[in-house]
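Troubleshooting log. The previous structure file for this entry was overwritten by mistake, so regenerating from the original sequence record. Sequence copied from the archived sheet and checked twice against the printout by T.R.
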Amino acid sequence: MKYIPILFLLVAVTLSGRSQTIYRDIKNYQVCSGFGQIDGQGYLVLRKFENEGKTFLLIVNPITLETKISESIFILKKQLSKAQIKDLLKNTSYQKALNKAKLLLFMTEDVGIDSGMPNEAGISLTADLCPSHRPLDRVIFTDIFNELGNKERPVPIALSVTGVWIRNHQTDLEWLKAMEQKREISIIWINHSFHHYVSRTLPLKQNFLLEAGTDINYEVLANEKAMLANGLMPSIFFRFPGLISDRHLVNTITGLGLIPVGTDAWLAKGQQPHAGSIVLIHGNGNEPAGVKDFINLLRSKAGYIANKQWLLYDLRESIENEFKDDSLKDAHTGQF
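Regenerated output below.
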């Protein structure tokens, strides 16, 4: 995998955050390791690609964890190694979350950040969209808007999406994008690999992304390209298929600049959420029990929701606050 270690000073750029920009002709999609500023705000550069004759960058604010696409009109300032960037970002939420994920690399199951904002009454909802021949469980999205839309709008949700699901569920995808355009929901798109390989017979240590011959770099980067080609903004989060990984996979994912996200409340397995939980359900039609449990959870909290005492939290905000350092100075100017 080729990395481009560069310090960018980004100027006169056009950014697209939640816009539905579609990149139909992506070429030379590459992993970058760079840092720069836009309007005085520091950004980490993660990817570089070309589309219709222009060069673009996928960048992330290391404080808020928000990703954007920047048209790459930049001034090359100086070389900057990955070690230098790590030191530059050492006090940010982004680097702290990466560091915590790396501490879990000896685990096989459920590696990743699994909770945040423990002092707040509410959860971060994540729904996995693994490959499936069944339609999207739309009731998840209509129910969270019906229950919470009067208290928080748009209602935040994080969707772990696969390239195969995107390819085979265009109607469902357009329905989700329409909800977001109407500001009914706000979606964070988590990378869940392109194919999400799974075997009914292989043991866990040889299954999912651990299956022999799997090209993890392809699984990650092809899925990002699929998101961009369909008007979705890739986040800096990754969820391992089946929540199964090993040391090599964790090192590869974090080396690509992505933060593994796990769960401490997989509802279909009977795990109960607590304040700050990252809750997991499947929205691909394959796990009706988990969807039912979540809807029951929503209804059980109706009184608290009415008084804004129980809400859904943006996954980025939840993790940002979990790792926030109040002593961090000049974070929003890029002077770390």
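The longest helix spans residues 216-229. Archived copy saved in two places this time.
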